[in-house]
Design brief:
The protein has 67 residues and is mostly helical. The longest helix is centred in the middle third of the chain and has 65 residues, at 2-66. The protein contains one helix and no strands.
Length: 67
């Protein structure tokens, strides 16, 4: 009788740990997706800023050339 109780407790602990692990893994994958999306947004912003700076530098060079 005691061994059945111990086995039952062990089984419930094992199931609990497995479900906690699955939940944590699922949450982490969601966080990774959010980070990747943020990386794409940042990459696009950097590209836009770089293009803006290049245009401004061309304007400054043109003003110096004409002036």
């Amino acid at each position: 009788m005691d061994s059945k109780i111990i086995i039952g407790i062990l089984a419930s602990v094992l199931i609990g740990l497995m479900s906690w692990n699955l939940k944590t893994t699922y949450n982490m994958s969601g966080d990774i997706i959010k980070l990747q999306q943020g990386q794409v947004v940042l990459s696009e912003q950097i590209k836009r800023n770089t293009n803006f700076i290049k245009k401004q530098m061309k304007k400054i060079k043109k003003k110096k050339k004409d002036g």
